[in-house]
Amino acid sequence: QAKENGRNGFFFYERSLTDSLYSRMTLEQDLRHALEQRQFTMVYQPQFRLGEARPRRVEALMRWHHPRRGNISPLEFIAIAETTGMIIEIGEWAMETACRQFLTWRQQNVRLDKIAINVSAIQINSGFADRVLLLLKELDFDPRSLELEITETAMMSGIIEVNRQINQLRAHGVEFSIDDFGTGYSSLSKIKSMPVSLLKIDQSFVRDINDDINDYEIARAVILMAKSLGLTVVAEGVENQAQESTLQRLGCDWVQGYLYGMPLTGEAFVETYRQS
Ligand code: C2E
Ligand code: MG
Ligand code: MG
Ligand code: MG
C-alpha cells in the first residue's frame, strides 16, 4: 500500500516536472507562432469618471488562447515575450488591433474619448515614437485619442531614450499614464519628474483599502501627491462599493474594475455600451 502511494507520489512529481519544463521551453516556441496563427485577441475594459454611468475611456488587454493549454495569462506570456524580444512585434499587433477597434466603434455609435494601450519598456527603443506616429497616420487615427500605459518600473528605468520617445509622442497629443503605481521603488517625489499626466494606483492597494491601514495610507498619499502635482488619478481593480466610497472620499478621479465592467471582446463591448 505504502509502495503504491510512493509510486503515485513519484508519478505526480514527474508530471509536475514535465509541466514546468513545458512552460519554460515549449511555451517560448509556441509564442513564436502564436501571432501568425492568430491565437491572440484583444479585450477591452471600460474606464469611468467616478460617479458617471457611461464609460469615457477603455483599456485594451491582450489574450492568448493556446491550442492545448487554453488561455494563458498575460502576466505569464508578456514576460516571455519581453525576454525574447518578441514583444516588439506582438506589441505592434496589439496597438494596431486596438486602434482599429476604436475606429470601428465610432461607426457603431460607441463614443469614447480615448483608448489606453499597455506598452512594455522594451518596446520603447529609438524607433518607437516614429513607428507609432506612422501607424496612427496610416489609420487616420487622432493621436489625442490614444493613451499609452507604462509601468512605474519601466518609467524609472532611467533610460533617457524612454523619456525622449515619450516626449516626442506627447508633442503630438498622445497621453501617457504610469501603470501599477506603488509597486515599484520610486519615491513619491519622483512623480513630478515623470513625463505623464495620469497615474494608475495598483490594484493591490485598492483590494484591502478598507481593511489594511497601510494600503489605505499609501492610496491616500499617492492621490494627495498626484493631485497636488496636477495629475489625474485612476484606481484599478475596484470590485465593490465600499472601495469606491473610500476612493471617492480620497479624491480619486477615475475608476476601473469588475464593479463597473469586465474586459469584453470588441463585439460584446458594442452590445453593452452602444448609445441609441
Ligand atoms: P494591467 O495593465 O495593470 O491591467 C489590469 C489587470 O487587472 C488586467 O489583467 C485586468 O483584467 C485585471 N482587472 C481588471 N479589473 C479587475 C478587478 O476588478 N479585479 C481584479 N482582481 N482584476 C481586475 P490582465 O488582463 O490579466 O493583464 C495583466 C497584465 O498584463 C496587465 O496589467 C498588463 O501589465 C499586461 N498586459 C495585458 N495586455 C497587454 C498588452 O497588450 N501589452 C503589454 N505590454 N502588456 C499587457
Ligand atoms: Mg494597464
Ligand atoms: Mg495596472
Ligand atoms: Mg497590473
UniProtKB/TrEMBL annotation:
Name of the protein: cyclic-guanylate-specific phosphodiesterase
Domain of life: Bacteria
EAL domain boundaries: 24-276
Organism: Parathalassolituus penaei
